[in-house]
Amino acid sequence: MLCVWLRRAAQVIDDRQDSLSVLDAVIGDGDHGANMARGFRAVAGKLDEPPPDVAALLKLVGMTLISTVGGASGPLYGTFFLDMGKAARDVSALDVPAWRTLLAAGVAGVAARGKAVAGDKTMLDALIPAVAALSGTQSGPDTPQALARAAEAARQGAEATIPMIARKGRASYLGERSAGHEDPGAASSALLLTALADTAG
Amino acid sequence: MLCVWLRRAAQVIDDRQDSLSVLDAVIGDGDHGANMARGFRAVAGKLDEPPPDVAALLKLVGMTLISTVGGASGPLYGTFFLDMGKAARDVSALDVPAWRTLLAAGVAGVAARGKAVAGDKTMLDALIPAVAALSGTQSGPDTPQALARAAEAARQGAEATIPMIARKGRASYLGERSAGHEDPGAASSALLLTALADTAG
Amino acid sequence: MKKLINAPDRVVTEALEGMAAAHPDLLTVHLDPAYIMRADAPVKGKAALVSGGGSGHEPMHGGYVGRGMLDAACPGAVFTSPTPDQILAATRAVTGEQGALHIVKNYTGDVMNFDMAADLAREEGLRLEAVIIDDDVAVKDSLYTAGRRGVGGTILAEKICGGAAEAGADLGSLARLCRDVNASVRSMGVALTSCTVPHVGKPSFELGEDEMEFGIGIHGEPGRKRVGMESADRIADMLMQPILEDLPFRRGDPVLLFVNGLGGTPLIELYIVYRAAHRIAQAHGLTVARSLVGSYITSLEMAGTSITLLRLTDEMTRYWDAPCVTPALRWGA
Amino acid sequence: MKKLINAPDRVVTEALEGMAAAHPDLLTVHLDPAYIMRADAPVKGKAALVSGGGSGHEPMHGGYVGRGMLDAACPGAVFTSPTPDQILAATRAVTGEQGALHIVKNYTGDVMNFDMAADLAREEGLRLEAVIIDDDVAVKDSLYTAGRRGVGGTILAEKICGGAAEAGADLGSLARLCRDVNASVRSMGVALTSCTVPHVGKPSFELGEDEMEFGIGIHGEPGRKRVGMESADRIADMLMQPILEDLPFRRGDPVLLFVNGLGGTPLIELYIVYRAAHRIAQAHGLTVARSLVGSYITSLEMAGTSITLLRLTDEMTRYWDAPCVTPALRWGA
Ligand SMILES: Nc1ncnc2c1ncn2[C@@H]1O[C@H](COP(=O)(O)OP(=O)(O)O)[C@@H](O)[C@H]1O
Ligand SMILES: Nc1ncnc2c1ncn2[C@@H]1O[C@H](COP(=O)(O)OP(=O)(O)O)[C@@H](O)[C@H]1O
Ligand SMILES: [Mg+2]
Ligand SMILES: [Mg+2]
Ligand SMILES: [Mg+2]
Ligand SMILES: [Mg+2]
């Protein structure tokens, strides 16, 4: 399932590369789409002979992103997958609690590396609500449903970055001029989670 | 009368500076208007205390143009006035034969310095017909009439440069692409002769 | 988009191949991962200087590799910080027993990627220091931003530290000197036109015929405000005043005045800006002891200029004057 | 028109004032008439080199004044040849008993103005030679044109003759060497955008998004033909083939390959063009012994490039390598 997700993510990122770059051009430097596409193309290239277990695969994805994406999003998404990989050592089946554990670990890693918090207008504003949506899940529903809810939370979280004033990353240089535009990293995070939900669904 | 002509010429050149530069932009480098305006502004500045005789005044004009115009037209118009000045030593009144002598000398100087001939698409294509018009004058008509005819010949000569292919100066780099456009130097020569006719008339 | 390129995704690699072909006496270029190093690196007994950042700012940084300046530079994709493995490979290639100094411009991406590389390099047993350059007064340095950007001051830091390293300064002194330079340098820029990132294919922003983007960065990021077009003298003043106030520069200070072109502005205009900036500096009581005029840190084909002012110490002046032999900056040898 | 200027008619003077302020150690700038000379001119016992031409081609020629290159340069108005009195004053200021060489680009205006100045200088008793540079293969050299234009080869001639003059070559040898360089050098350029002459205020020509002007000069004069936009590799080939055929350059020839930017093209693109040109030269069997990459002879903010190829003799290589200390070209000292 992980490989299917990653392939689908690579496809979606590639399809949406231009719109991600346009978002980044408005409040950043216009490379987010190209950065992500380059990284996920490299990830897809590693999937023909994937490592046997989940932890090793996630680590490989993280390392691949770190060494191909560059910019701010490279270390951040790289850390996201690396830290998911570390957490994966403790999970067996990819059920809802497992995804909650993995994504929470990844998000914590992003927050630690980027020193950003919710409301700073970054990818965290899509990722944090997604994890919260999974955590909010009471009695175990089926995985597709829960991941769909997480993806929807990420999309809404990304949209909610529009009015925010950026306090981290390149958009923060703009000060108040950063308000009124969606954060590109939040948008790409929402794409990744949507691809995950679509894979499960 | 010379001073009146030169002031009027400076005025006309200044008024038409942009259109001369536009002509030059199409088949040259777009500076002919500015070059001529800079030169004739300097000439006008010398007319408050003009030298006593015609020869000295024409020489002063030539020297002024040479040291302020630059480009191809600077030495050429400079030589035009310097050589008129040399010829002026032999004339007394500024009647038709005198103008014929002066202009013919100036034109010969331009031809010698630039090594161009009629049909090369240069200022000579306006100047040569003007001198010819004066020479064609049979029995002495009044000066204004003769100079008006010379000016008209210069204007027609300038217009006749339109279909020509340039063989001298910067426009010659264009080869056949130079056809279809009036030569800027011919245009400025026509302006100078028109100013002269208007002064006499 | 009209550019002298073959394909957007081959821009960086092909430019590196061009640099390798043009400067075989000065540089060794490694392509995967991409870095440029001194042809004679590692230099025995010398602390190494490593810098890097996104491409599109040429000659920075690759053009500053050579004797008396950088030992290695890591070019990222256009406007994109290089990756840790690149930086690690470059650091490894040039670093000996004296260790290495990473000179890092203050952008989130650069800082994180250099950080990760430094961690990895230290794990391998290399001695490493890092100094962050953040000289752009256009950005408010507060808890609410990523802090000031590193711009023109970077080149002055690289030249001065390069001179010191060549003269045998140890890693600690180099890091201290680099921090001193950063503490004494301020910059500000203005764009008259946008630039076009090759893989985007259209301008990063649109500017009207009467507008300029004030407080611009070097990545086509919008500046802090868009204002009406002004004369060169007025623009120089608008750039110089915030610079002078910020440090602040004081009467009697000896300074290096650096007027930079952003890529699409011709040299004749830079000298007109230099003239104005020099007069303003003098009127402020400064002694302009050293100057630099040219396109040294650029933003692709963006038209515009930035001004950088450095308060010199004798030590800085000495190392500024020291010989350097790089593709883009060369004197004394 | 968006330019970093104050007023069109102050552009040249203010840029000269900027140069004077930025390079007091290297240059002395005279304003009326305008010329730039070496701070230490006249240099006793040395033949002087004087060049000049319209402004708007910076750093040419003022940026090449200094030890090992020009003794004086005369800047005309933008794209307008300087006047004889300027050239005379500059020549007078730098010429001693060894006489002076005028290096003149082949434009009707430049040739006539330098001619008149040379006549006047000779009347004053100065020893004078003049060499005309006409390296642009885009222009047909025939009875029906003003002959080929002088473009990129001019800088190579100035550097090589400057090295020879510094080494003590007499006037006759300098003129001979300059003619040798001119006979062995060929250039060709292409524009991607037009430039705007300050006092005209609008672009000299209009180019569509898919067009380029091939065989362009350096004054915004239209080229020989307008063609569709091409890749960097293809453009390099379109420039190199006529150059290679014209001399002709032959297998085994050692050459200097010079890829020049026209003012608005960033360095990263020039290196991509250099890469392609270098491969073409190698495929042709040439040995690329020396290189130069950068914006050294420009056309205001025009985007585009020109390629210059010089077949080197040992003498030329020696003087190319000789030290020079000018604002724009500096090495070996
Ligand atoms: N400190 C940070 N913490 C979390 N996310 C960040 C941080 N800084 C930047 N980002 C994210 O990175 C995105 C930009 O990525 P990208 O454009 O690829 O890198 P760069 O800004 O270096 O060009 C932003 O939209 C934002 O979501
Ligand atoms: N050899 C020549 N003989 C006569 N006139 C010439 C010659 N070369 C150029 N001209 C004239 O000079 C004009 C151009 O002058 P100008 O634009 O001021 O100088 P430049 O060509 O140096 O920019 C041309 O239009 C032409 O009339
Ligand atoms: Mg970005
Ligand atoms: Mg002209
Ligand atoms: Mg970036
Ligand atoms: Mg001209």
TrEMBL record, chains A, B:
InterPro entries: DhaK_L_YcgS, DhaL_dom, DhaL_dom_sf, Dihydroxyacetone_Kinase. Keywords: Kinase, Transferase. GO terms for cellular component: cytosol. Residues 1-198 form the DhaL domain. GO terms for biological process: glycerol catabolic process. The keyword Transferase applies. PROSITE patterns: DHAL. Pfam families: Dak2. GO terms for molecular function: glycerone kinase activity. NCBIfam families: dha_L_ycgS. This is Putative PTS-dependent dihydroxyacetone kinase. The gene is dhaL.
Automatic annotation (TrEMBL), chains C, D:
InterPro entries: DhaK_1 (IPR012736), DhaK_dom (IPR004006), Dihydroxyacetone_Kinase (IPR050861). Pfam families: Dak1. Residues 7-331 form the DhaK domain. It is an enzyme of class 2 (transferase). The gene is dhaK. Keywords: Glycerol metabolism, Kinase, Transferase. Pathway: Polyol metabolism; glycerol degradation. One of its GO terms (biological process) is glycerol catabolic process. It catalyses: dihydroxyacetone + phosphoenolpyruvate = dihydroxyacetone phosphate + pyruvate. This is phosphoenolpyruvate--glycerone phosphotransferase. Its EC number is 2.7.1.121. Coiled coil: none annotated. GO terms for molecular function: glycerone kinase activity; phosphoenolpyruvate-glycerone phosphotransferase activity. The keyword Transport does not apply. GO terms for cellular component: cytosol.
